Amino acid sequence: MPDTASQPAPVLLGNEPGSFPHGVLAERHPAIIRQVREALPYEAGQHRALDALLANCTEGVIEPLPGDAPGRDRWTAWGMDEYVGRSWFDVPWLWAESHFYRRLLDAVGWFGPGAWQGIDPFRPAKLAELDAPETDEELAALDGLAGLSADELGRALLHGSLWGNRADLGFSLSATGTGSGAGRGAGAGGRGEVPALVADDSERLWSLLPPSGTGTLCLVADNAGRELVPDLLLVAHLLAHGRAGRAILHVKPHPYYVSDATTADVVDALRRLTGASGTAAEYGRLLWSALADGRLTVRAHPFSCAPLPYTDMPDDLRAQFAQATVTVLKGDLNYRRLVGDRLWSPTTPFADVTAYFPGPVATLRTLKSDVITGLDADTETALVAAEGQRWRTSGTHALIQVRS
Ligand SMILES: O=P(O)(O)OC[C@@]1(O)O[C@H](CO)[C@@H](O)[C@@H]1O
């Protein structure tokens, strides 16, 4: 029996050794601390703070943020008092992960005041990816799509944006997340009869964005670099071909989940596009002028880094999504937040668990956590027969789901 929105499945915790969430807390977070230490020439105080964070997040309990900590009131509203004194492994996994990034930024001095204020610990990794030869190849490949019709090009760019979600630098640090490049493309990734795309509502998405549209597209971005670049190309295409009159790009207000895009990353990506040649540069210039004339807006709402599902979104964000013709949520974490980070039965209807969302909502995601809804029974059976439960977290499958 599928779960239902009124009888929800259990919220994921990280306290089961051997589970994917446990591995993230016990192995991925220490690996992220190691990577951050090596990325920038931190000072002794920052190394000491990283030592303390490592000990605390693996063996300690959640501690209250100091009284004067930036955003403390928000974290109180987001449930901090309830979780203080408990092991990181025993509170909702989503909450523990999100809080880890808040503490990591504290340790490196991101919030300031001080000389390290605003220095993104993940920037070297993000820039390396943006500057990689693979990015050049992907941008150059755009010129080869010149012969496609606008619709064909739109579909190609939608798939580029979808599979761009493989480019998640946190994921590449985890033991199960190796195998770079697998699954990039609609036909790749699955074994035997199992499709790479396990759900595909893309026609419904296109019907929400007709060519004569004057509507507003809200795109809630995920990773910077090689995910954000194809996201921006898709937005440029939708604006250029009138499928959206206006686009609003939501990014994170601070560095998060390693490679999540901030405004600084949007700037880097746009400079990368305008500094390229051919079609990529044209798209870059289009977006640059769309920002200037108001067709494109960037927003960085605090709730984008909240440790909570979208059911708890504040009224101002709810009103923004309600005004959109469609809100497109990118990536695995946004998917988890959209459906509640619960271990749903995979055939639980997507429309039911997203019924609360204020307006049409679409999700483009590669599968990198246990959370999944909206599969048909045959697809689930084929996936399990071919891969056991590995398909849930391997990042080699993807989905496009829409609730209109
Ligand atoms: O949102 P994204 O970038 O697609 O993925 C984020 C992610 O790597 O982080 C979580 C584990 O830390 C997983 O849910 C997911 O695989």
TrEMBL record:
Alphabetical GO biological process terms: DNA damage response
MF GO annotations: metal ion binding; phosphatase activity
Pfam families per record: ARMT1-like_dom
Stretches assigned to the Damage-control phosphatase ARMT1-like metal-binding domain: 25-378
InterPro entries, alphabetized: ARMT-1-like_metal-bd_sf (IPR036075), ARMT1 (IPR039763), ARMT1-like_metal-bd (IPR002791)
Catalytic activity, as annotated: beta-D-fructose 1-phosphate + H2O = D-fructose + phosphate; beta-D-fructose 6-phosphate = dihydroxyacetone + D-glyceraldehyde 3-phosphate
Annotated keywords: Hydrolase, Manganese, Metal-binding
Cofactor(s) this protein cannot do without: Mn(2+)
PANTHER family found in the cross-reference section: DAMAGE-CONTROL PHOSPHATASE ARMT1 (PTHR12260)
Similarity remark: Belongs to the damage-control phosphatase family. Sugar phosphate phosphatase III subfamily.
Protein name: Protein-glutamate O-methyltransferase family protein
Annotated source species: Streptomyces griseicoloratus
Top-level taxonomy: Bacteria, Bacillati, Actinomycetota, Actinomycetes, Kitasatosporales
